[in-house]
Amino acid sequence: MAYTAPVGDTQRLLADARGGDPIAFDALLDRHRGRLAAFVASRMHPGLRGYLEPDDIVQETCLEASRKIADFEDRHPRGFYAWLVRIAAFKLKEADRGRRAKKRGNPAPLRAEPMSLQTSVAGRASRGEHALRIAAALDLLPENQAAAVRLRYLQGLSVAETAEQLETTAAAVKALVARGLVQLAGRLRMTS
Length: 192
What we know:
CATH class of the largest domain: Mainly Alpha
Low-confidence stretches: 1-7, 106-118
Helix content: over 70%
Distance between the termini: 34 Å
Strand content: under 5%
């Protein structure tokens, strides 16, 4: 059963999801899942990649968000995605602590609870491969361009917020992002 709220009606989806509607919650997640997977892949420690896939962290993030959605307060236009990014960043740190503990002989794995509304294995694999390609291409960009693209598109910050984070001007951020996206697109075409 598909969700019936209009595509642009994020506030309605949020209200329904906070009210316990799993279809609305899944519709919200679907809007951000690809960007969230790219964020996770770009921030994943290389040693963690052999321990977990980016989709594992995305799944943990979605599960945690489903547990806490009733308490979510929307204070910003990109508030839901920014909230997901904060959860994902925490899950990445948690997973890395678990990896390091396991390396020392003290296993501390992530909770492995399945999500009830999950895509197919092939779909998850495809998203995971795409996220890894994006992360690898981002790693090849000049550092300032990669940082600008990550902040704008993976963390969902505004141009002004990105400029503040990078300690530069909004015009510089726009130029960095534009050049970064052009190079990123070229690199992704070469690896397709």
